[in-house]
Design goal:
The protein is an alpha+beta fold. It has seven helices and 15 strands.
Length: about 375
């Protein structure tokens, strides 16, 4: 990487020669301005206001404009002769915990590379001291015509420096907070916590610029002469939240569905599949015979609603019951059993059943005696 500044780190009485290189790069796509009528490129030319002639970069210098409009020329030699100790030195002024630095102050990032073999040992000493102390170094340095504030920290095996804005360059957040006294309920906070837990963490290396990729695809398609159809805009709700609780609940469901995208097809109610389960056959017994009951098959269909609940719908089943004809005694017994089914007449049913059984046994024994007596009478008459 090409260095943009050469100097030294001043660490007390220790001087560490270093080279400053950019730690970041810009991947955004730049566009040119063109003339819509003929596609010609629009260029900015540097023209002197006095003679209205275009001048080259070598003929351009710096000047300070006074309040009355007077231009005061300032040369690079003038700036180099300023009595600044930070002109070629990154001067460490303090070591503080990292959380003492407000992220609002963060500016450009640089890597500090040891410049030469003699710089390796003091460079490593400072790096390990920062690592062991879990602190960062606050430093001052001069770059591009102005003195700046910086923060030195360890990144892997390299000392990195973040340019910092001066405290008076940070604006106060006036009129940025919502007006009025806003109350947030515990239920809303619980749902917000659930949404945060569901979204979880992310691998920062997996994040990428979707907009840049879309622009690159657009440029490639137009360069190939393809017709680019406009994409359908996503429904963002225009930022209007009617029901905050419902919006949070829907957000939690959407986040869970996104996290579990691999198994989204399982249990999906739109698959059109239904589980069929036969019902068990039931039978009712009578005192003489058993009534046969034919039970139809019921279909159960399971659907998953958007809220994640499972709903089971059962189809109608038809049961046909055929009861055999019974004699008077069997009807009496059947009636007795049906009466015994109710809690209020159990005792009466038992007594009725006992009497019916006694009568049946008595009539049966009487009939047998009558049949036995008949042959005796026939023999006497003969």
């Amino acid at each position: 990487m090409r260095s943009i500044w050469n100097g030294a780190i001043s660490f007390g009485l220790v001087s560490i020669p270093i080279k400053l290189v950019n730690a970041t790069e810009n991947h955004s796509i730049s566009f040119r301005q063109i003339h819509l009528a003929d596609g010609g490129r629009i260029r900015y030319r540097k023209v002197c206001e006095l003679d209205e002639e275009e001048v080259s970069g070598g003929e351009i210098g710096k000047a300070y404009e006074d309040a009355d409009g007077t231009m005061i020329p300032i040369t690079d030699e003038d700036l180099a002769q300023l009595p600044l100790p930070t002109a070629k030195t990154i001067e460490i002024v303090a070591f503080v915990p990292a959380d003492r630095i407000d992220p609002l102050q963060m500016d450009a990032a640089y890597y500090l590379s040891a410049n030469g073999v003699p710089a390796a040992k003091p460079y490593t000493l400072l790096r390990e001291a920062l690592r062991r102390s879990n602190r960062v170094a606050v430093a001052k340095y001069a770059l591009r015509g102005r003195e700046r504030l910086g923060m030195l920290r360890v990144v892997d095996d390299v000392i990195a420096m973040h340019g910092l804005l001066w405290p008076d360059e940070i604006r106060a957040p006036q009129d940025a907070a919502p007006d009025g006294d806003i109350t947030v309920r515990d239920a809303e906070l619980d749902l917000a916590d659930a949404l945060m837990d569901t979204l979880g963490e992310v691998d920062m290396d997996s994040l990428h610029d979707d907009y840049r990729e879309a622009v690159e695809e657009l440029v490639a398609a137009k360069a190939a002469g393809e017709i680019v159809l406009p994409a359908e805009p996503e429904d963002t709700g225009d930022g209007k939240v009617i029901d905050l609780i419902a919006a949070l609940e829907n957000s939690v469901r959407a986040a869970r569905k996104s996290r579990n995208g691999e198994g989204a097809g399982e249990g999906d109610g739109d698959s059109g599949m239904a589980d069929v389960h036969p019902l068990k056959k039931t039978s009712s017994k009578t005192s003489g015979k058993t009534a046969q009951t034919t039970t139809g098959t019921a279909k159960k269909t399971t659907h998953r609603t958007p809220t994640g609940k499972t709903v089971t719908r059962s189809g109608s089943s038809t049961a046909k019951k055929s009861a055999p004809k019974s004699t008077g005694a069997k009807k009496s017994t059947s009636t007795t059993k049906k009466s015994a089914g109710s809690a209020g007449s159990r005792t009466t049913a038992k007594k009725t059943a006992t009497k019916t059984a006694t009568k049946k046994r008595t009539s049966s024994s009487g009939g047998t005696t009558a049949k036995k007596a008949t042959p005796s009478r026939k023999r006497t008459s003969a």
